[in-house]
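Open question from group meeting: does this chain pack into something compact, or does most of it stay loose? Before anyone orders reagents, we agreed to write out a predicted structure and look at it together. Recording both the input and the output here so the notebook holds the full record.
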Amino acid sequence: MRDRGWWMAVALCGALTVMAGAFGAHALNGTLTPRLMTVFETGVRYQAWHTLAMLAVLAWRTARPLAGQRWVLGLWLAGMTLFSGSLYALAISGVKVLGAITPIGGGLLILGWLALAVAAWRSQSASGKA
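Structure tokens returned:
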């Protein structure tokens, strides 16, 4: 299977998204301040959306593999880890210094979207269509 590692990574991201959401809804509900609960939920939301986006890129890669797609996947995986992971840690621990990691993760998520644009542009150029 092509990209088996990426498929496994996206499956684990999906499972972790559901587990984090359930943990937040059941174990953390009522124990965190509303502000920290919002922080935790933001981490879950960004992880969910980027997991779905990774699925879409993998489906595109199945139909038309391009080198740039792996960059997209890698940037999003690293971005989710740092962005969502730091928000989870911040919400649970309350240690504000962990929030300093969040913008790095956010930057990687943004770079992933820009890399997707480049991959799409190159795909269009390679096919000879304007």
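Observations to bring back to the group:
The two ends are 32 Å apart (CA to CA).
The chain has four helices and no strands.
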